Amino acid sequence: MSINRKIIHIDMDAFYASVEQRDNPELKGKPVAVGGSSDRGVVAAASYEARKYGVRSALSSRVAKRKCPDLIFVKPRFHRYKEVSNQIREIFFEYTDLVEPLSLDEAYLDVTYAKKGKPSATLIAKEIKQRILEETQLIASAGVSYNKFLAKVASDVNKPNGLFVVTPNEAQAFIDDLEVRKFFGIGKVTAAKLNNMGIWFGRDLKRIDRLELTRLFGKAGNYYYEICRGEDHRQVQPSRERKSVGAEQTFFTDLFEDEELETEMLKIADILWRRYERTKAKAKTLTLKYKYSDFEQHTRSHTVQDYFVSKEQLITESDRLLFSGENFEKGIRLLGLTLSNFIDEQISKPVQLTIKF
């Protein structure tokens, strides 16, 4: 068992619902459910205001409305959740390349050899949480430990906006007192079966030998035997190669003046360039995204002949996109820049060489 690794599990709090509340200030502080409002609909996500009434994901909309008559249903916008998820993921990549997304709203990070920040995984987790809040106005919870199982369980302890650390010295006592229904990898059916056997906590599970657990639960039994002893040898598996890199900012107050827009665009370009440099990619296409105060969204793109080679070039092209085309007739609540169309993706396509005299 390796206790020298530093693993962080980041879990966005009520992610889909929180994005909807952030993008539409009229929903803030109100019980919100993302999903279909018909009687045959299902709740995909619920805000914490809705959860107080017992509204949870996978609950039928009919039951959800009965539990919370004032519940506000919002249609899911998965393309938007993916955009925000990518924005958060870019923050992760500034600290480590070992990022394993589990879904749009959670991921493992191995920061044993972090690229920046303090040597303490706890301090890195705090910094990442703060960065997410500052750049997206969203709240995340974090768990920190020496393996994936403990980090995952720890992130649930103090939700929302939680941070919980399980050190190697504290791990066994933490697991012994943990209800088996809260073990990651043990579902409701298995938990009920264990409860019927008189197994309610980690200390109870530890009394069952490996052979008996594998007889009862197959391969999963071997996993249960190890995790109740604080052992989890799974590595953080990085996600597949990215196809783009971006940065964006949602503003607390709408922007109207060109000077304000250019100032914010320069800040976003600075963040984007740092992320782009780290990827060591060669991008040809720059896309500007902007959203009006009424949530109407537009994009403008430009593709260069070779690829983006300097921050100055990025700023020049960003400025050109910002002030080209139509004039902004309404307040701007969001600006974003994305670099894509990586040269590595174009290998199979013919490339025209240019000779400079």
UniProtKB/TrEMBL annotation:
Catalytic-site annotation from UniProt: 106
Note accompanying the cofactor annotation: Binds 2 magnesium ions per subunit.
Keyword Transmembrane helix included in the entry's annotation: no
Record has Cytoplasm as a keyword: yes
GO cellular component, as recorded: cytosol
PROSITE patterns reported in the protein's UniProt record: UMUC
EC number: 2.7.7.7
Cofactor: Mg(2+)
Domain (UmuC) ranges: 7-187
Positions of the record's site feature: Substrate discrimination: 16
Keywords: Cytoplasm, DNA damage, DNA repair, DNA replication, DNA-binding, DNA-directed DNA polymerase, Magnesium, Metal-binding, Mutator protein, Nucleotidyltransferase, Transferase
GO MF term set: damaged DNA binding; DNA-directed DNA polymerase activity; magnesium ion binding
One GO process term, biological-process aspect: DNA repair
Binding site for Mg(2+): 11, 105
Pfam families the UniProt entry points to: IMS, IMS_C, IMS_HHH
Quaternary structure (record): Monomer.
Family the UniProt entry places it in: Belongs to the DNA polymerase type-Y family.
Name this protein carries in UniProt: DNA polymerase IV
Annotated organism of origin: Maribellus comscasis
Gene name, Swiss-Prot/TrEMBL: dinB
